Amino acid sequence: MTFVVTEACIKCKYTDCVEVCPVDCFHEGPNFLVIDPDECIDCTLCEPECPIEAIYPEDDLPPGQEVFIEINKELSEVWPVITRMKEPLPEADKWAEVKDKIDLLEK
Questions:
Q1: Which of 8, 23, 29, 32 stands 20 to 30 A from 88 (CA)?
Q2: Is the pTM of this model over 0.90?
Q3: What range does the domain containing 79 cover?
Q4: Is residue 98 included in any domain, yes or no?
Q5: Which tens digits make up the pLDDT trace of 13-72?
């Protein structure tokens, strides 16, 4: 099993999760983070660190978020690894509670 970054991360990109990852499985895109499912060791450290609850175990995704399993896999193959915490996107707080943001995902 792996952990999956879901839609809530789009346009927020908090990186608290990155800082605690022992295997550097996070990858960074323009306005979203993903987890490489082949690198994730299911340690559970990232999930409680996310301030907007955007990270879930693959087997416990909220309804409608299943598409992010493939999105995380696909984008982790092309986006660079991120290993250090950065500032969130400038309007992250504004976007944190917004739903249905998948069309805003920048690849």
A1: 23
A2: yes
A3: 3-84
A4: no
A5: 999 999 999 999 999 999 999 999 999 999 999 999 999 999 999 999 999 999 999 999
Contact 18, 85 (CB under 8 A): yes
DSSP string, the chain: --EEE-GGGTTT---HHHHH-SS--EEE-SS-EEE-TTT-----SSGGG-TT--EEEGGGPPTT-THHHHHHHHHHTTSPB--S--PPPTTHHHHTT----GGG---
CATH number of residue 69's parent domain:
3.30.70.20
Q: List pLDDT tens digits, range 1-10.
A: 899 999 999 9
Contact 74, 9 (CB under 8 A): no
